Amino acid sequence: MKKLTMTLLALMMAGSVLAGCNTMHGAGEDISEGGEAIQNASQ
C-alpha cells in the first residue's frame, strides 16, 4: 500500500512539473510575439 501511494504521489508531482513547464513555454512565446509586434510597429 505504501509503494502505491508513493508511486501515485510521484506521478502527480511529475504531472505538475510538466504542466508548469508547458505554461512557462506558452508565456515565453506570448512575450516573444509581443516583442516582435513592437519591433514591426516601430519600423
UniProtKB/TrEMBL annotation:
Domain of life: Bacteria
Keywords: Cell membrane, Lipoprotein, Membrane, Palmitate, Signal
Protein's UniProt keywords contain Zinc: no
Pfam families: Entericidin
Signal peptide boundaries: 1-19
Keyword Lipoprotein carried by entry: yes
InterPro entries, alphabetized: Entericidin (IPR012556)
Family: Belongs to the EcnA/EcnB lipoprotein family.
Name this polypeptide is given: Entericidin A/B family lipoprotein
